[in-house]
Amino acid sequence: MKIPFNKPYQSPKALEYIKDAMDRGHISGNGHYGQKCQKFFEERYQVDKCLLTSSCTDALEMAAILLEIQPGEEVIMPSFTFVSTANAFVLRGAKIRFVDSRADHPGMDESQIEALINEKTKAIVAVHYAGVPCDMDLIMALAAKYNLFIVEDAAQAIESEFKGKQLGSIAHLGCISFHETKNIQCGEGGMLMINDQRFLDRAEVIWNKGTDKAKFLQGEVSKYQWKDLGSSFQLSEVNAAILWSQLEEMEEIGKKRKGIWDQYFDIFCRRDLKESHSYFELVRNSMDSNSNFRIQPLEFRGNSHMFYLVFESEKERKAYSEALSEQGIMAVFHYQSLHKSDFSKQQFPEEFKRELPNADKYSRGLLRLPFFLELDKVNKEWGKNDL
Ligand SMILES: *Cc1c(COP(=O)(O)O)cnc(C)c1O
Fold first, then answer.
1. Which of 185, 373, 365 is nearest to 279 (CA)?
2. What residue ranges are annotated as transmembrane (predicted)?
3. Ligand 1 touching residue 335 (CB < 6 A)
4. Does ligand 1 lie within 6 Å of residue 184's CB atom?
5. pLDDT tens track for 86-117
6. Residue 286 resides in a domain
7. Any domain includes 7
8. 300 near 130, Cβ under 8 Å?
9. Does residue 306 surpass a pLDDT of 70?
10. Of 48, 183, 265, 367, which residue is most buried, by most CB within 10 angstroms?
11. Residues spanned by the domain of 330
12. Which helix (H) or strand (E) holds 308?
């Protein structure tokens, strides 16, 4: 038996919607399905404007253009994050200042942000790791106090909330990913959420490759022309059709993921197993095979995006992932602290020299277990199918 780390869910309607998109004769961006998806999110999350992009990386790059980052200006973000969070701003000449992770969670330690703010600071990127919300009250208060912009990297955070508000819809701009490893996915895809009216017009221009095509399509101008910076950011209708098939099932998918998270939590924290001879039993037995594993307590569910364990040492992580691998189970580690990367050493040597012990702890010790809807099937059809 082989259990991969991820197996993208395929909605039964996906192929029908792709065919429909093709039959409509419009498979580039901003068509029938793309507009349906955008409207869905605008209504559900009460957002002024949602724009589908071909990745969350693109949405972050659009955010950096919208904020008019100037070379030498500083952007604050966690060190324990994906490279795109940083690259989007570095492409505009920003200097990145890195914040450590929390002791109890890989997300950013909000209490360390204020010490990094100076006259060059332009923005803070709040990364909601594993869909667990950053303290947005605290971060938005810093924005007001120092006149900064806040971007939410809610790549992993779809359907997760902070005090009743959807993540990505709270700060000035929010970015979501529909990459195949995320809860709701269309292969490659993303979305920019524009929560501040000031950015609305310019966002559409940037999204339309730097032209006022949106105004032209609405009949407000007779021809469209070059107005601003822009690039090819739109999501193809083929991907939007796949995305729509998943949005129709979004609540069901969310419930199933919650069930998987609960089963993992049960075996590691409650030492309780509902079904024997299941995948989850294998995962637990692999753990019991070595009684020396020291694991940080598990506390945060977020949106059931991932289930991870944090080992005290890299050696323990490796031992457990090898024990799983012997059973055919693929567990994977995650980010390596950005401040300690080769690129940071070259570009931001002062940041490279800083000590951010928690970010390094998660780089060394965090292990993500397989997480996809068909893990349920592994229970019922034990040994019959290789996934
Ligand atoms: C996945 C991810 C991204 C990038 O998303 P893409 O859609 O693959 O570009 C950015 N930031 C975080 C935190 C992510 O998890």
1. 373
2. none
3. no
4. no
5. 999 999 999 999 999 999 999 999 999 999 99
6. yes
7. no
8. yes
9. yes
10. 183
11. 250-385
12. strand 308-310
